[in-house]
Design brief:
Order of helices and strands of chain A: HEEEHEHEEEHEHEHEEEE
Largest sheet of chain A: 7 strands, mixed
CATH architecture of the largest domain in chain A: 2-Layer Sandwich
Number of domains of chain A: 2
Oligomer: homodimer
Number of helices of chain A: 6
CATH class of the largest domain in chain A: Alpha Beta
Mean pLDDT of chain A: 94
Low-confidence stretches of chain A: none
Strand content of chain A: 25-35%
Number of strands of chain A: 13
Distance between the termini of chain A: 41 Å
Chain lengths: ~280, ~280
Amino acid sequence: MNELDLVDRLRKMAGGRARGVIRGIGDDCAVFRPKAGEDLLLKTDQLIEGIHFPKSMSADAVGERALARALSDIAAAGGDPRCCLVALAVPRDKTDDWVLGLFRGLLRLGKRTGTVVAGGDLAQDDKVHCSVMVVGAVKRGRALTRAGARPGDQLYVSGRLGKSWEQSIQPRLKLGRQLSGKATACIDLSDGLALDLHRLCKESRVAAQVESVPVVRGASIERALHGGEDYELLFTLPSSAKHPSGTTRIGEIRRGRAGEVWFKGEKLPPRGYDHFA
Amino acid sequence: MNELDLVDRLRKMAGGRARGVIRGIGDDCAVFRPKAGEDLLLKTDQLIEGIHFPKSMSADAVGERALARALSDIAAAGGDPRCCLVALAVPRDKTDDWVLGLFRGLLRLGKRTGTVVAGGDLAQDDKVHCSVMVVGAVKRGRALTRAGARPGDQLYVSGRLGKSWEQSIQPRLKLGRQLSGKATACIDLSDGLALDLHRLCKESRVAAQVESVPVVRGASIERALHGGEDYELLFTLPSSAKHPSGTTRIGEIRRGRAGEVWFKGEKLPPRGYDHFA
């Protein structure tokens, strides 16, 4: 297939207009009609072969993962995904079936979460490189950010930490929506608890004390603190608030040097998966 | 610099909130507040070292080009750019100065065109790979598309064709806004006149007859027809309409097989820069 045929095929797979998408695949730009009273959330994330996933990963798992990572950020902002754009570069040795497989995986998760594929860009490169840009929506002024945690707030995570890339990502969209208007700060765990909690604290100009962490079976505490494949939500609630089911209290927010994180009485370095370290 | 420091630095360079960006670099998502009565235009474009630009290109030229290509599509839809996200992967051997240089070039064009850098993603890869996603705005229902050309419409291009990647891209934003509500169809020339006119005609379910093409000094007609570095606008107007200054009539829309393009009486193959050919 040449590029024209491939785009035609993807357009048919992606389906029609929905979720505010007035014009989707097949034009210079996608056209999106926002609803009154909503803010939009914008997020882009890269998935690179050999860095974020192994060459052996199946095409549909790659597609699902590429979208899931960006959706996890929409969840962290308390939003509802609407549509996405996919910038995909693939090596010459990948077949059309491989490319279609990637989109099948991506579209399956899109359908499950209400995310329409509205457009994208195809190119050739030495290895697979997939950037997904997601547009989400949230009630005006209600986006959760990293910046609102206050001393005395209690610190929670969803699920258990220390996962590996072999586990599929379940973006915590429902939880994010529950937290919108309730959590004082929120971030998704994509680079490990130590680094992501540091980021949340830095933006909120507070410190944090972590007491214990729920760990997946077989994972080390080191992995739970500094691993980078969790895609769970880390959030803060006022001490009076009830936390949603499926979430665990792991510590609390303290006054202190902005960004400083303590774990069982010791300072935790902001070290996780740093692409530039 | 590690990733945290680099993001801090970029955040300072990118500046504050503007153009509807309520929250920019430094959170899981950027937050954008749309204006009432506007549709949004979404576009992503990839710029890959060795494919879309040579390794020798300066960092700031790469940054400028990455944004310019996506802005050209916003122009083709008759829109006004508002903000962008930048997904950047760079090899280990690129210095922090190189990365900052890329952003300097991108931000300079951003300032000139009113495009705020609202967020992005950084990663490491074997070569430079820069995907820019732009959000533009247009009066509700006024987005130009490829789909509205009718038999009898006159066909125009801006500027002259046959450019090479050595020439910097001037996204035709002002012209695009002038054409909004007037042109029946519009596309930006990124893969050569033959292929892009084929695309416009296919979406509009019409054919086209090209009579002559304005060519840049020193370029061949072959390059003007099948080259891919023009970033000019190709558009159609009803035969009664006046065309904006700086644009040239090159032919007209005919009844015929959808997507068929004729040049001086001969059928022109839809061949340009095809990444999958």
